[in-house]
Amino acid sequence: MSEERKRRSDTRMVPYPSQAIVPERDVGKQPVLETRHLGIEFGGLKAVEDFNMIIGRTEIAGLIGPNGAGKTTVFNLLTKVYEPTTGTVLINGRDTKGLSIVQTAHLGVARTFQNIRLFSQMTVEENVRIGLHNQIRYDMFTGILRLPRYWQQERRQHEETLELLSIFGMQDLADVRAGSLPYGAQRRLEIVRALATNPSLLLLDEPAAGMNPHETEELMENIARIRDQFQIAILLIEHDMSLVMGVCEGICVLNFGRIIAKGTADEIQNNPVVIEAYLGRRKEG
Fold first, then answer.
1. Residues whose CB is less than 8 angstroms from the CB of residue 36 and which lie 6 or more positions away in sequence, other chains included
2. Within this chain, do residues 73 and 13 fall inside the same structural domain, yes or no?
């Protein structure tokens, strides 16, 4: 059993108000995310309905379900790509109603995408530094004239970028064009860029897509290391059940836009409703 799987199995999930469970270590702390009766309609079709979820401040949580269940739509609601038709999203206790994508990101939400969205013609370092843009501490005048403060900030950001890239052992690729990286490395770079924004909640949309079993195992370990190092919460959408069951503490199952089950990995694996949603009802005969 890997170190993270052992740690996850040792994690005690305890009841929390609103019929949720969070890791015991997060009890008494404000949840990083709370959704209340969240929903959205498209032309009368309810894509997500009555979605209620709480994520503890350092929890690794999973959102799973069959294709078309509404998982990415939930991510779009959390990041304000879509404005909810009903319900509330609280990030670190603040209602995001009326906020823009940028304002929501400033509250501490960062995400990766199902389809990689890197600046392929830019270098690896330049992609990460885009995530560091909100940490620039000099004005336009200083930048234009290249005053000493500009160079100090440039050195600091370079060092921070290399430190972030070292999470995945990518610091030696800083000068490589992002679009020339192998698929798995591009996935990892997107995670690093998201971390550069200094989030309190990191949303990963199918981070293991296209990865081989060895890369997936490494990703599982790195997700746990990111949580421990940065003390943040992580919510991931993933179809690779070995990753979900190996790293997630609380899991929420979505089907046809509605939650059909919540619980720990062991509870979800043995839930007949979840099994039916994935495999279909068995024929009696």
1. 18, 52, 87, 88, 90
2. yes
3-class state of residue 227 by DSSP: helix
Instruction: Please give the single-letter amino acid code of residue 94.
Output: R
Q: Give me the DSSP letters along 150-199.
A: HHHHHHHHHHHHHHHHGGGT-GGGTTSBGGGS-HHHHHHHHHHHHHTT--
Q: Which domain holds residue 178?
A: 121-184
Provide the Cα torsion 203, 272, 67, 7; round to 10°: 30
Question: pLDDT digits over 269-279, tens only?
Answer: 999 999 888 76
117-160 tens-digit pLDDT: 899 999 999 999 988 866 655 556 565 666 666 557 667 878 88
**CA of residue 91 relative to chain centroid, distance:** 14
Name residue, tokens 């000068």. Answer: 175
Query: What global pTM score does this model have?
Result: 0.86
State the residue for tokens 């079993």.
213
Bridge partners (DSSP) of residue 281 are none
Residue with tokens 């040792």: 10
Asked whether residue 155 is domain-assigned, the answer is yes
Beta strand 45-55 with 33-42 is antiparallel
Helix axes 183-195, 148-165, angle to 10 degrees: 130
